[in-house]
Every structure is written in structure tokens, then in C-alpha cells.
Design a protein that fits this description.
Largest sheet: 6 strands, mixed
Distance between the termini: 38 Å
Radius of gyration: 23 Å
Oligomer: single chain
Number of helices: 11
CATH class of the largest domain: Alpha Beta
CATH superfamily of the largest domain: P-loop containing nucleotide triphosphate hydrolases
Strand content: 25-35%
CATH topology of the largest domain: Rossmann fold
Length: about 325
């Protein structure tokens, strides 16, 4: 079966005189039919530009993107008919009620009046907005407004749904509600590509994750496999009064330690397992003003740090 999204050699350069910016740098990526795929990376990594090109809002400098087997540059109207899009910025019509936002979107994509009315009602129920049918978007909470945006994006039953930072700015309860809806859509057979800088979101939602930074795909696999590739069974954060290079050398010499990275007021230590690690590290740090030791399981951020030497949140 052909991939739902096929990206080959994708490049986007923004030219502004001497301030040329390479936002996307020769990306190759395929998303399978029915897959829930995540692009994980810090702000400015190239995630939104990549989705902008896939959804026909940004023209690429080079490369090719096919969505539902349609070239998005050669035939953007036909490609748009096969995709739903939720951007980072709220794009609801503020002069229309929730029901009207859905109804007129359905009509725009060719549904008859009766079918559009039925579809609007169906989506309001599915997205738990039935009691807000006659409410204007400005009177919705952030979580409700985002659920309405997703409902509108899937109103015409697209094959592929693009979500650009779908839970940015939402409170934890609203974020979980959006996750549940995305899982339901994927369970119904829809292909979903989302961008995020939330590690937990990528780990809990996605079948596969590509970590992107400076416009390039650094690594791509399932969350579990990516964490195994980090080469660490445990991550230790060691806070000290004096983070001297000598302490870093002592930590690197400990049994099972595979890497040591400087952090604010101390070091991050990657090790095979936690057995005996904390006592050994405490002993090594006794001359440097030990303040705190914290152990954690590796995450996708661990992978990112090992690849780039910096935190994903930067």
C-alpha cells in the first residue's frame, strides 16, 4: 500500500538578502496509511514549515510531497480535498456558531444541505460540544475551541489529518481530552501527522516519532526503540556547588556510565542501570559540594540530548 504521506528531498529556504534561513533541509519521510506519526522538536526546528508545505500553505524550495498519492505542489486543490488541517493559530470563523462553523465547512467541500446538517450534528456529539452548538467560538474555553477546530478539520472525512502543535497552551485536562479524540480518529482509520515539542505527547500518542532539529530529521522510529537507542537505562541529574571538569571525569569513570553532560549547577549522567549509581556518584561528588541527586527513566528528550547535546525545550 502506498504511504499516506511521502516526503522526498524536501527543502525550504527563506531568502531575505543576507539573512537567508534554511528552515527545512532535505527531509525524507514516509507516513503509512492509518499511522499516527509525530514530528518532535524544539521551537524553530522546522516542524511547522514542514507541515505548511505538506498542506499547500508554503511553497518548497526543492523536493516533493505527496499526500494521499497527490503531489501537493502540482495539484493543491485535489490534495486539500484529502486532508484536514489544524494550525497553531485558531482559525475558526468568529461570526459563526459552533454548528455553523461545521455546517459551512461541510458545504464548502461539496456536501448537500441535509448531509451537512447531519454531519455537523454528528461531530458536535462526537467532540462533546453538543451543548455548545449555538455558542460563538470566542465564548469557548481553549480546550473546547481546539476540539471544534479538529472537528471542522475532519468534517469532510479526509484521509490525512495534520495537527500543528495541537495542545500548545492547553491545560492538562484539555490536553488529555484532545489526545483521546486523536486516538479515536486514528482508531477509525485516519492517518494523523502531528508536530509537538511535548515529550509526553509524542510518547503516549505516536506509533512512530521523528526527532527534528535545525530543519533535519535526526532519527525516526517507535518511541520504545528510540529510547533503547539512547544507550542509557537511567538518567541521573547531579547538582553540586562546584561543577568542575574534574568531577565530570570522575563520573565518566563510574561503572556503567556511558555519558556525562554539563547542566546548570551540575551534570547529567547516562548509565546502563541504577544499581549502585547514586551512592557511587555521591562519593565522587563529595569534594564538590553535593546538593542533590535525582534518577529518572530515559525519555525521548534523553534521545534528543544524546543527539544534540542540549535540551528539547530550548
Amino acid at each position: 500500500m502506498p504511504p499516506a504521506i511521502a516526503i522526498a528531498g524536501l527543502t525550504k529556504r527563506y531568502d531575505a538578502g543576507a539573512n537567508s534561513v534554511l528552515a527545512v533541509n532535505e527531509i525524507d519521510l514516509e507516513v503509512a496509511e492509518g499511522e499516527l506519526f509525530g514530528l518532535l522538536g524544539p521551537n524553530g526546528a522546522g516542524k511547522s514549515t514542514t507541515i505548511g508545505i505538506c498542506t499547500t500553505r508554503v511553497m518548497p524550495t526543492a523536493g516533493r510531497v505527496r499526500v494521499a498519492e497527490i503531489d501537493v505542489v502540482a495539484d493543491p486543490p485535489r490534495a486539500r480535498a484529502e486532508m484536514g488541517v489544524v494550525t497553531q493559530f485558531r482559525a475558526l470563523d468568529r461570526s459563526l456558531t459552533c454548528w455553523e462553523n461545521l455546517y459551512y465547512h461541510a458545504r464548502y467541500f461539496g456536501m448537500g444541505a441535509a448531509a451537512a446538517r447531519a454531519r455537523a450534528g454528528e461531530l458536535l456529539e462526537q467532540f462533546r460540544l453538543a451543548d455548545r452548538a449555538r455558542t460563538l467560538p470566542d465564548r469557548l474555553s481553549g480546550g473546547m475551541a481546539q476540539r471544534l477546530q479538529i472537528a471542522r478539520a475532519v468534517c469532510h472525512r479526509p484521509r490525512v489529518l495534520f495537527l500543528d502543535e495541537p495542545t500548545a497552551g492547553l491545560d492538562p485536562q484539555s490536553r488529555i481530552a484532545v489526545w483521546d479524540l486523536v486516538r479515536e480518529l486514528r482508531a477509525g482509520g485516519m492517518t494523523v501527522l502531528l508536530t509537538t515539542h511535548y515529550i509526553e505527547e509524542a510518547e503516549r500518542l505516536c506509533d512512530r516519532v521523528a526527532i527534528i532539529d535545525h530543519g533535519r530529521i535526526l532519527i525516526c522510529d517507535t518511541p520504545a526503540q528510540l529510547k533503547r537507542q539512547a544507550g542509557a537505562g537511567v538518567v541521573m541529574h547531579l547538582r553540586v556547588a562546584r561543577a568542575a571538569p574534574e568531577l565530570a571525569e570522575r563520573l565518566r569513570a563510574l561503572a556503567g556510565v556511558s555519558g556525562v553532560e554539563p547542566i546548570e549547577q551540575g551534570f547529567r549522567v547516562f548509565a546502563a542501570d541504577r544499581d549502585g549509581l547514586a551512592p557511587a556518584a555521591a562519593a565522587a561528588a563529595q569534594d564538590f559540594g553535593l546538593e542533590d541527586i535525582a534518577l529518572a527513566e530515559p525519555s525521548l528528550e534523553t534521545v534528543f540530548i544524546r543527539l544534540t547535546g542540549r535540551e528539547l525545550r530550548e
